[in-house]
UniProtKB/TrEMBL annotation:
EC number: 5.1.3.1
Protein name (database record): Ribulose-phosphate 3-epimerase
Function of the molecule: Catalyzes the reversible epimerization of D-ribulose 5-phosphate to D-xylulose 5-phosphate.
InterPro entries, sorted: Aldolase_TIM, Ribul_P_3_epim, Ribul_P_3_epim-like, RibuloseP-bd_barrel
Obligatory cofactor(s): Fe(2+); Mn(2+); Co(2+); Zn(2+)
UniProt source species: Lacticaseibacillus mingshuiensis
Pfam families, sorted: Ribul_P_3_epim
Binding residue positions for a divalent metal cation: H31, D33, H64, D173
Active site residues per record: D33, D173
GO molecular function, one term: D-ribulose-phosphate 3-epimerase activity
Amino acid sequence: MKIAPSILSADFADLATGVAAVEAAGADRLHIDVMDGHFVPNLTFGPDTVRALRPRTSLPLEVHLMADDPDRWIAGFADAGTDILLVHQEATAHLYGTLQTIAAHHVQAGVVLNPGTPLNTLDEVLPLVDQVLIMTVNPGFGGQHFLPAMTAKVAALAKTRTARGLNFAIEVDGGINDQTIGDVTAAGADIAVAGSYIFGGDPAQRLAKLEGRA
């Protein structure tokens, strides 16, 4: 299981220190939650945050774009140094084209599903994506409790991936801690986002627990 610490739960006044701590502790990538105040009721980072972090870490930077009309943000985040750009199925009427645009900017393309969105809404785009992120909480705020019903959704997606011979990664985001990581791992997830759990204690110890090293 790869672990992607979410900087949404880091100290905003000292992001560089938080990033350095999780990189030294063995994180696989950084997860950057971008919220526009419309698609979700919160406002967070923009391309300048990615641009500022890019020279401070060698970790892949994964941007989770929780924003209406995501196409208008693709070029800015790509130019800032984003490695993986994830857009919500619910945020665009032209998901196929949006994913093509991301790929055209030489960035890995991913799609995100909210808890209430059925898996079959992705049937036509799965061959285009490098990653599918299943939200295991309702998006918008960190520190929420894991929704156990989403484990079956992850398992169903893993089954579809195998049946269709596809190789996208499956990621989960929301309420991930040392108690929930086992369920999503068993269901077939490859990557887990964790924010409040990692930054709410010693990052090295908590990453080790999530990765089964402690």
